[in-house]
Design brief:
Largest sheet: 3 strands, antiparallel
Distance between the termini: 187 Å
Shape: rod-shaped
Number of helices: 7
Low-confidence stretches: 1-23, 25-30
Strand order of the largest sheet: 1-3-2
Order of helices and strands: HHHHEHHHEE
């Protein structure tokens, strides 16, 4: 009886072990032990929070060099914006310089126009004078033509200045014409203006005239 009691536990143990070996599981024998979660320190919690925030806002921790570069870029952008807006000192200086250049350019253009207008006006006045002189010369050609006709009536087709001024026939013909065309005097210089009408020669201080 005692042997059966001793054998009975052994038999049960064998059955359990066999059953355990057959299904390959020890869940019925041992309680699975799960390690207790490790308690986080304050520093670790802060790191986790930073990671969560970085993931949420898609940001990363910047180094000091990166922050300096961002500040420099931000400053450069602000300066460029101020320059374009004309509010920075450099922009104001550039605008003042540009205004001076434009003022000088406008003044030069204005002076160029004024000079051109003055030159045009001067030329017009000169042309007017030249035209008037030509018209006057054309009118007094009538006097030169009358002298040429008198030369043909002279000895050998020649007449002197003294004869023009003293001969009664010459004076009768020329005096009305001289008055008409406001000719003050008949002299060598005046008659040389009409080389196509009069031929002037001088010999022994005597000026002779022939028809050309």
């Amino acid at each position: 009886m005692a042997r059966n009691q001793e054998g009975s536990p052994q038999s049960k143990t064998a059955v359990i072990e066999e059953s355990s070996e057959e299904d390959g599981s020890d869940d019925g024998l041992f309680e699975r032990i799960t390690p207790a979660p490790k308690k986080k320190t304050g520093m670790e919690r802060d790191e986790d929070l930073e990671k969560d925030l970085a993931a949420q806002f898609q940001t990363t921790t910047l180094t000091r060099k990166q922050k300096e570069e961002l500040e420099e870029q931000k400053k450069a952008n602000e300066e460029e914006a101020a320059r374009k807006a004309g509010t920075s000192d450099q922009a104001k200086a550039e605008l003042e310089k540009l205004a001076e250049v434009r003022a000088r350019r406008d003044e030069a253009a204005k002076k160029k126009i004024e000079d051109a207008e003055a030159a045009k006006k001067k030329k017009e006045e000169e042309d007017t004078k030249a035209t008037a002189a030509d018209e006057a010369t054309e009118k007094i050609r009538e006097v030169a033509s009358a002298i040429a006709a008198l030369c043909k009536d002279g000895k050998d087709g020649t007449i002197t200045i003294n004869q023009l001024n003293q001969d009664a026939k010459c004076k009768k013909i020329l005096k009305p014409l001289l008055k008409k065309h406001n000719v003050k005097a008949l002299n060598k210089a005046w008659m040389e203006k009409f080389p196509d009408i009069l031929k002037i020669a001088e010999e022994n201080n005597m000026v002779t005239i022939q028809a050309a």
